[in-house]
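From the methods appendix. Each design record in this collection lists the tokenized structure first, followed by the designed amino acid sequence. Records were kept in a plain field format so they could be parsed without special tools. The example shown here is representative of the layout used throughout.

RECORD:
FOLD TOKENS (621 positions):
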């Protein structure tokens, strides 16, 4: 750790002695014989430790420490003195004016130890000061830890929710008693926070009477351990309608459909989309559409997001029993809230919603031919026209892209693999596409063509094989060789994952592996939780490009007593690939980040996608 020490004493010899004691590349030492100059240092520089004499001509050490406390509250204050007045020192310690007293003559080892400990304590005080400053706001605000447990709630947020602070402390921000938001949103906010980004969006809080209090919320990380959540309450119906209307104007109908498709890939279990439609001639403007939106949110109690691709049309993804009629309780609640007329432009308007189900997964209640539900929704909107506006034309495609038909691009799936910042890094090839070289090649062509359309960086292709002698590996090798022979442009990077136990020898590599410019990753599998990984030097000596962490091993890294996490982080810092896959929850995602994983995949980030869906992960210009 690096830090600054300020030494204050009217005797230059003492300053020289302590400075020699602190000769260390991680310590910056400032010295002065003047208390006034010391105060200037404290006012203009970040000083972690202040060491001062007690008796000085222009100002005594206690007075200096009192001033220092105001100028630099996170500085750790150590008092040196050969004249001990214990009642005065005891009172200064109790009042927090000084943190440590050391009598002259001092023991060098003890003084050095206390200065280093003071630097650590200064870091703690700086964090506390930051949190205090962050919470000292007139806007409603929460402070949570990195697991979303509320640690502080300021007075404005407690008043807005009509609760005492102790009723919120210790509760999870996403618990049903605090908020009413979908699980997928928690996953996305966690991802952004762990990438040191600020999330801003619509957030429903729950007050003491179990009523929804809609807000705009900004969530930003303050450190590795804490997150600040600042709320902008939407207090009136007029405010709420205005905010919602503005939000609708930001999103075209096509974008809403894309958002829904993206939501489905990140949310497990959703098997049906409720399609709520009104008379298009009656609900023909955004104002009335906003009122309908509010009624729908009220009906479903924010159990799921509502997507609005047109003024008169709403889509709600739900989880329902395939053997029963689609979401009967939600349909009943929706019909009930629209029994009451809407007040629009001083007129009472009665609307009756039409409700139908678009099954994402097969159901015995859906007797129509098995087609893409989104295609049926587009047809419902009118042959590709959304809100009366034509869909934007497709971007021009190079000749190589035009050779692959859209139908073939949607035939194959892949598991997206993301880097630690949330950007798409590559795709994992599924085992069913390794059966024959032709199938492998078609998958590769479709994915690579789509990748080149939306991404400038090379595509990584990750594949798993049991060993380098089985039949599927021979098929893959044949596919790759043929691809390299015929390729005229950029080619993907290949990463091969082989299973490996820490007590096994490193598998022998086929000579052709390196000749094909392939990277080798070993899948770390522990037989028991007590089994340890080899040491850093042993792992670095294996001549492999990285390691793949099985889900069980990722879960172990979350445990406080697990000792291998620094080892994995050090490997990642050295450029070794650490790939955590099978991440199915926010807890597993947090554990993967803490283990230093540079690549991540799993349903908590995204489910499998086809080539036509890769644009979801492209970064817009």
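DESIGN:
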């Amino acid at each position: 750790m690096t830090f600054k020490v300020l030494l204050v004493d009217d005797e230059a010899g003492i300053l020289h002695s302590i400075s020699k004691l602190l000769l260390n590349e991680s310590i910056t030492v400032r010295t002065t014989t003047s208390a006034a100059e010391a105060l200037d240092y404290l006012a203009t520089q970040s000083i972690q430790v202040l060491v001062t004499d007690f008796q000085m001509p222009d100002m005594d050490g206690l007075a200096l420490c009192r001033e220092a406390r105001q100028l630099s509250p996170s500085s750790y204050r150590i008092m040196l003195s050969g004249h001990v007045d214990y009642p005065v020192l005891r009172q200064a310690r109790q009042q927090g004016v000084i943190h440590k007293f050391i009598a002259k003559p001092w023991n060098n080892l003890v003084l050095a130890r206390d200065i280093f400990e003071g630097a650590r304590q200064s870091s703690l005080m700086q964090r506390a000061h930051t949190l205090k400053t962050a919470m000292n706001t007139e806007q409603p605000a929460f402070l949570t830890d990195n697991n979303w447990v509320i640690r502080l709630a300021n007075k404005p947020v407690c008043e807005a929710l009509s609760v005492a602070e102790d009723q919120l402390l210790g509760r999870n921000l996403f618990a049903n008693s605090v908020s009413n938001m979908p699980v997928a949103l928690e996953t996305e906010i966690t991802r952004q926070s762990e990438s040191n980004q600020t999330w801003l969006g619509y957030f429903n809080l729950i007050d003491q009477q179990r009523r929804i209090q809609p807000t705009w919320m900004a969530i930003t990380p303050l450190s590795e351990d804490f997150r600040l959540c600042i709320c902008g309450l939407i207090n009136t119906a007029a405010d709420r309608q205005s905010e919602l209307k503005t939000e609708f104007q930001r999103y075209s109908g096509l974008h809403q459909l894309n958002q829904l498709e993206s939501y489905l890939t990140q949310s497990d279990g959703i098997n049906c989309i409720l399609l709520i439609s009104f008379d298009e001639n009656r609900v023909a403007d955004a104002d009335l559409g906003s009122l309908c939106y509010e009624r729908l949110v009220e009906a479903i109690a924010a159990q799921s997001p509502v997507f609005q691709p047109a003024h008169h049309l709403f889509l709600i993804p739900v989880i329902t029993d395939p053997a029963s009629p689609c979401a009967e309780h939600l349909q009943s609640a929706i019909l009930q809230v629209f029994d009451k007329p809407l007040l629009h432009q001083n007129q009472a308007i009665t609307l009756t919603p039409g409700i139908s189900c678009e099954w994402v997964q097969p159901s015995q209640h859906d007797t129509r031919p098995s087609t893409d539900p989104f295609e049926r929704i587009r047809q419902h909107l009118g042959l590709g026209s959304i809100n009366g506006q034509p869909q934007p034309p497709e971007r021009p495609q190079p000749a190589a892209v035009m050779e692959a038909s859209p139908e073939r691009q949607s035939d194959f799936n892949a598991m997206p693999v993301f880097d630690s910042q949330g950007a798409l890094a590559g795709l994992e090839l599924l085992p069913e596409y390794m059966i024959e070289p032709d199938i492998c090649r078609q998958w590769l062509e479709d994915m690579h063509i789509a990748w080149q359309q939306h991404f400038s960086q090379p595509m990584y292709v990750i594949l798993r094989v049991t060993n380098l002698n089985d039949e599927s590996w021979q098929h893959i090798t044949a596919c790759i060789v043929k691809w390299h022979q015929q390729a005229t442009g950029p080619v993907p990077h290949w990463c091969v994952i082989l299973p490996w136990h820490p007590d096994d020898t490193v598998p022998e590599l086929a000579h052709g592996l390196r000749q094909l410019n392939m990277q080798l990753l070993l899948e770390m599998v522990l037989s028991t939780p007590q089994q340890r990984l080899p040491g850093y030097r042993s792992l670095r000596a294996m001549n492999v490009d990285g390691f793949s962490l099985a889900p069980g091993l990722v879960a172990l890294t979350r445990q406080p007593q697990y000792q291998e996490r620094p080892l994995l982080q050090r490997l990642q810092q050295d450029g070794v690939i650490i790939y955590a896959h099978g991440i199915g929850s926010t807890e597993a995602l947090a554990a993967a980040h803490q283990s230093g994983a540079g690549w991540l995949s799993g349903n908590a980030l995204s489910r499998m996608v086809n080539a036509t869906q890769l644009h979801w992960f492209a970064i817009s210009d």
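APPENDIX NOTE: The first helix runs from residue 12 to 21.
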